[in-house]
Design goal:
α5 runs parallel beside α7. The chain has one domain: Rossmann fold (3-Layer(aba) Sandwich), CATH 3.40.50. A 7-stranded mixed β-sheet has the order 3-2-1-4-5-7-6, sandwiched between helices. The protein contains 7 helices and 7 strands; from the N terminus they run ααβαβαββαβααββ. The longest helix has 18 residues. By secondary structure, it is an alpha/beta fold. The chain starts with 10 loop residues before the first helix and ends with a strand. GO terms for molecular function: S-adenosylmethionine-dependent methyltransferase activity. This is Methyltransferase domain-containing protein. InterPro entries: Methyltransf_11, SAM-dependent_MTases_sf.
C-alpha cells in the first residue's frame, strides 16, 4: 500500500514512516497534534480505527475536512481543548512543538496518553554553531539531493523560524519530561522523540 504522503515530499513527510512505525499494534485511538491538512492523520487512519486531528489554523483544518473521511478534525488549541486525560493509545506531532512552549506541549501530550500508549514526535530545533555545523551541512546536501529527485512540496500552514529551542535543549527536555524516551537527531534538520507511557 502506497502512503498518500509519498506523492509529495518535504523534510516533514520524509519522517512520516518513523511516526507510523511507532504505532502500537493494539492502538484503537490516535491523536495527531498540529494535523495541518491531515496528511499524517489519513496515514494513521489506515492502521488505527479512530483518529482525531487538531490544529489552530482554520484554512488547514478546512482543507483536511474536504477529504470527506471519518477522521475527527478539531479546530482548536490542543493545550486547552477539553480532551479526556489518558484517552489515547497513540499521540503524534510533526513540526508543531516549536510553535509553542515545548515543555508545556510535551507535558500535555504525555497526560493524554493511556498507560502503555506511545508518543511520537518529529520536530525542528535551532542549531548551535559551531557544534551543529556538520549536521547542518550534511543535511543541506542530502536535502538538495532529495529535492532534485522528488521535488519539494511547500505546505500552506503557518511557519515559525527560527525554532526557539536548540537540539540539545530538546534532548534535555525529553529526558526530564519523558524518562526513558528515545531521542534521535536526524540528518534532514529534524529530531524525533519516541516514548511509551509505563503501564500502571
Amino acid at each position: 500500500m502506497t502512503p498518500t504522503g509519498s506523492r509529495r515530499w518535504n523534510h516533514n513527510i520524509h519522517y512520516f514512516p518513523r511516526i507510523l512505525g511507532a504505532v502500537p499494534a493494539t492502538a484503537r485511538r490516535a491523536l495527531d497534534v498540529g494535523c495541518g491538512e491531515g496528511m499524517l492523520a489519513r496515514e494513521l487512519r489506515r492502521i488505527v480505527p479512530q483518529v482525531t486531528g487538531i490544529d489552530l489554523d482554520r484554512p488547514s483544518v478546512d482543507e483536511a475536512r474536504r477529504h470527506g473521511d471519518d477522521i475527527d478534525y478539531v479546530l482548536g488549541d490542543f493545550l486547552t481543548h477539553p480532551f479526556t486525560p489518558a484517552s489515547y493509545d497513540f499521540v503524534s506531532s510533526v513540526a508543531t512543538l516549536h510553535h509553542l512552549d515545548a515543555a508545556t506541549g510535551l507535558n500535555r501530550m504525555r497526560e493524554l496518553l493511556r498507560p502503555g500508549g506511545v508518543l511520537a514526535v518529529v520536530g525542528l530545533a535551532r542549531s548551535e554553531i559551531p557544534r551543529d555545523l556538520p549536521w547542518d551541512l550534511a543535511g543541506a546536501a542530502v536535502g538538495t539531493a532529495h529535492r532534485a529527485f522528488k521535488g519539494h512540496w511547500e505546505h500552506p500552514s503557518p511557519t515559525v523560524w527560527p525554532p526557539p529551542a536548540t537540539y540539545s535543549q530538546m534532548r534535555t527536555l525529553a529526558a526530564e519530561i519523558l524518562p526513558g524516551a528515545r531521542y534521535r537527531r536526524h540528518l534532514l534538520l529534524r529530531y524525533s522523540i519516541i516514548w511509551r507511557r509505563p503501564p500502571e
